[in-house]
Amino acid sequence: MVRVKKGDSILLTKDQPRKRPGYPLQAHCPIAEVFTTLKPGAQLWINEGRIGALVVKSIKEGLVLRVTDARETGEKFRAEMALNFPNVDLQISPLTHQDLTDLDFIAQHADVVGYSFVQTPEDINLILNELDERRARYKRKQKMGLIAKIETAQAVRNLPEMIVRAASRVPFGVMIARGDLAIEVGFLRIAELQEEIMWICEAAQVPVIWATQVLESLAKKGLPTRAEVTDAAMSVRSECVMLNKGPFVIDAVGILDKLLRQMAAHHTKKTSRLRALQSWEHLFGP
Question: How many domains does one find in the chain?
Fold first, then answer.
């Protein structure tokens, strides 16, 4: 197993990695704009924030990175790792060629489409225009719903205007993609930002999906952590909670259902109900 440690060099390549003298650690990025936009000193995160790196220099083959953040024992280095570029505007369309092809199928068979890395009101107009064109092409009467995944700082800044653009045309909802968003804005700010997103959406009567690693240990290992249970309890203030797959996901759904039913007696969206503290009496008697 290959592991990277703090101080190691990684070559981020424009093409598929191959043997290159001096660069035993290589990763491939298919987005050409990354190599023209990122300059020396730019920060990026690999594998959902587990590996932090800085751009050292640009060479013909790509970008040379220096690992700045990793556990002392090192981090796994493998294919298909996610890349995040906080505070960098790559100026690329959130709709790829493959996305446009997929929309042909989605427009004929789905009721709702999820929109990843949407960041601006113009991004909203882009997908709605594409959906309108396909709706006319396939003679579909019903409008499709749109779920915008909020996973960058720019998306948070533009959220009010994006809500105005989308909710006036189609059924619209927001997913707080807390994994990518935490990498973008930092772990200290994610708690505050998810609160602000939910306040904005409640004011606009836009439903919210609370996402990323909810009851993750339970779904994958069969036993939740205390922090996960507290996090799941807070999710009652949203309209929907997303669980990731795992061998114990059925158990996770059952426990989440019971937990949300209990917490629904205490909250209605972002407002506390201040009901009688019945659990106290159940535990300790009258």
Answer: 3
Describe the crossing of helices 121-137 and 97-109 by its angle, rounded to 10 degrees.
Answer: 50
CATH number at residue 122: 3.20.20.60
CA–CA dist 196, 276 (Å, integer): 28
3-state SS class at 51: strand
Per-residue pLDDT tens digits for 175-226: 999 988 998 888 889 989 999 999 999 999 999 999 989 999 999 999 999 9
Residues 271 and 249: their CA atoms lie apart, in Å, by 29
Does 191 share its domain with 130?
yes
Query: Residue 44 is part of which domain span?
Result: 3-84
**Residue range 18-65, pLDDT digits in tens:** 788 888 888 889 888 899 899 999 999 998 889 999 999 999 889 999
In terms of Cα–Cα distance, which of 206, 225, 150 is closest to 182? 150
Q: Tell me which of 43, 60, 84 is where a domain ends.
A: 84
Amino acid at 55: V
